[in-house]
């Protein structure tokens, strides 16, 4: 049994990443039912709308926490309570129409990042807001960790898949068809590269 050379293994790894780069961060099937859940970047690349808005909220909130005037103890201590209530609403199961991703992703992450940065600024300073800043930053970080853990346990919403005539999701599903096509193309090209390298190895090993 021949082993792949490090150079070929690295080349195959790059090829695999390139083949699936367009949907790596989509996190949803690429069909019409989930068109509102993804953001198209350029001609092919798709990003998860929720993750993109969460990242945008984190950047905006962190920048606001860095540039805003220093907060006193009262808003620093009230902020985690607001974040806890907002997070509970964002993560609550929805029987009807889901809330906007701006409400459930961008808003909570913006507030959490703001509290984390503003709290750390206060905690590293002097005055009565020092311990309140430390408490606000620690509470914000803990609630983000708990929210992520709860979201992972709950998993993504696949209600659209349950109603789809192509269910369950798989290679025949329209949402995964393009990814399956790229995987087949990758497999064909990778097989040719491996066969070509194996042929050269056999010729080299002949006496």
Fold and architecture overview:
With 207 residues, the chain is mainly alpha-helical. The protein folds into two domains: 1-29 and 169-200, no CATH class; 54-154, no CATH class. Helix content is 66%, strand content 4%. The protein has seven helices and two strands; from the N terminus they run H-E-E-H-H-H-H-H-H. The protein has helices at residues 6-19, 49-67, 73-91, 101-123, 129-154, 159-162, 174-205; strands at 38-41, 45-48. Strands 1-2 form a two-stranded antiparallel sheet. Strand 1 (38-41) and strand 2 form a beta hairpin. Helix 2 (49-67) packs parallel to helix 4 (101-123), helix 3 (73-91) runs antiparallel to helix 4 (101-123) and helix 4 runs antiparallel to helix 5. The chain is elongated, with a radius of gyration of 24 Å. The protein starts with 5 loop residues before the first helix and ends with a helix.
